[in-house]
Amino acid sequence: MARENRLLYLSLSLLTIFIFSFSKEIEVCKGCPIGSVKRAIELARAGDTIRVRGGTYREGTIEISKSVKLLGIDKPVLDGEGKYEVVRITAPNVVLKGFKIVNSGRSELEDIAGVKVENTHGCRIEDNVLENNFWAVYLANVKDCVVEGNVIRGPFRVGEAYSGNGIHLWHCKRVRIKDNYITGHRDGIYFEFVEDSRIEGNVSEGNWRYGLHFMFSHRDEYLRNTFRKNGVGVAVMYTKKVVMRENLFELNWGGASYGLLLKAINDSLIERNTFYKNTAGILMDECQRSVIRNNDFIENGWALRVWANSMDNSIVANNFLSNTFEMSTNSDSNPNTIEGNYWSSYRGYDLNGDGVGDVPYKPVKLFSYVLENNPAAAVLLRSFFVQLLDFVEESLPAVVSVSVEDPRPLMSKIEWKR
């Protein structure tokens, strides 16, 4: 069986080399013998390159069912006129590069996109501008594809209910989403049933709902992305073995917002991220055996909200800097490891000079515990009553019944080597 597989792979490789050895180039422009993108695709064979010169092409839905490279020169415009799916790709190894793709149709029954890729593999969607599309880039049941270097702007001022997602993946494997800019869509990036994939170096900001939203998607990596000023931040749900590293979550602010929601997340790693001025840096709900380490939490409303159904997680070696509340919980117990963090509000001492506070730090303030269980108490936040509670806590720590504590609080901020 192994020998048969090797022979099949060799045969496919030789066939690919043969096809591309006899490939040709086709030019499309308004004054050329071929003035239509659809006509060029009809004439092309697998392996051919179609170069489309600048101009506006209104051709309904352009279907690419052959393994061709479709390259735009001087950003030609493919216009869906508000009626059509603009580009649909069903062939393997298609390259779509250098176009401005605008004005897809809209539907309450269908997921109409600027670019839709279905039931194939090896595609590359790169260096395009997509504007005013319902869904922008939509990948369904694909493998080994790349979406890179695109600028994606949604249909502004239409609201969440009338906008699809910027980059949407459903049931995909080994996909790379890299260096894209996404704004104005419902969710900037959406993953559902996506495995062994990577989101890297993207900026997702000003989207109606989430900068990134993914569900049931395992063994994925999210590296060096920026999620800024989105409706309710980033949500990671019902997922295991995810890595989120060196991302920036900032200015995701609102009554029900957060930088990062972790819902039913297991065996995952969140490290070297920055959470800056979010309503909550991280909200943990029903999470187990995950590690949160080497992160900066700066000037958030809450740095961490850890609910009682989250356990066996490790929260170590993080910086907590000038947050309104460092941590809150809706339980008086702590089934997680919290140790070796720097807390800017820690007022302890270090008599032996080892850099570790001699008394434990209790990051859950009495009022934050009250607020977690009684949200209406937020009206008292800046009142004399809360100031009095803080004074009592500092003078008599025993009055706080919540057992959450860091037994080894650091005296100095941790400086990362990034």
Give structural attributes.
about 425 residues; 4 helices; 13-stranded parallel sheet; elongated; about 10% helix; Pectate Lyase C-like; 14-stranded parallel sheet
Secondary structure layout:
Layout: H1 2-21, E1 25-28, H2 37-43, E2 49-52, E3 56-57, E4 62-64, E5 69-72, E6 77-79, E7 87-89, E8 95-97, E9 100-102, E10 113-118, E11 124-126, E12 129-131, E13 135-140, E14 146-148, E15 151-153, E16 167-173, E17 176-178, E18 181-183, E19 189-195, E20 198-200, E21 203-205, E22 212-215, E23 221-223, E24 226-228, E25 234-240, E26 243-245, E27 248-250, E28 260-266, E29 269-271, E30 274-276, E31 280-285, E32 291-293, E33 296-298, E34 302-306, E35 314-316, E36 319-321, E37 325-328, E38 337-339, E39 342-343, H3 366-373, H4 384-395
Parallel strand pairs: 1-2, 2-5, 3-6, 4-7, 5-8, 6-9, 7-10, 8-11, 9-12, 10-13, 11-14, 12-15, 13-16, 14-17, 15-18, 16-19, 17-20, 18-21, 19-22, 20-23, 21-24, 22-25, 23-26, 24-27, 25-28, 26-29, 27-30, 28-31, 29-32, 30-33, 31-34, 32-35, 33-36, 34-37, 35-38, 36-39
Would you kindly provide a written description of the structure presented here, covering whatever features stand out?
By secondary structure, the protein is mostly beta strands. It has a single domain (59-399), classed as 3 Solenoid (Pectate Lyase C-like). It is built from four helices and 39 strands. The strands form three sheets. A 14-stranded parallel beta sheet has the order 1-2-5-8-11-14-17-20-23-26-29-32-35-38, with helices on one face. A 13-stranded parallel beta sheet has the order 3-6-9-12-15-18-21-24-27-30-33-36-39, with no helix packed on it. Helix 2 links the parallel strand 1 (25-28) and strand 2 (49-52). The radius of gyration is 26 Å and the shape is elongated. The chain starts with a helix and ends in a 23-residue tail after the last helix. 41% of the residues are buried. The model is unreliable at 376-380 (pLDDT under 50).
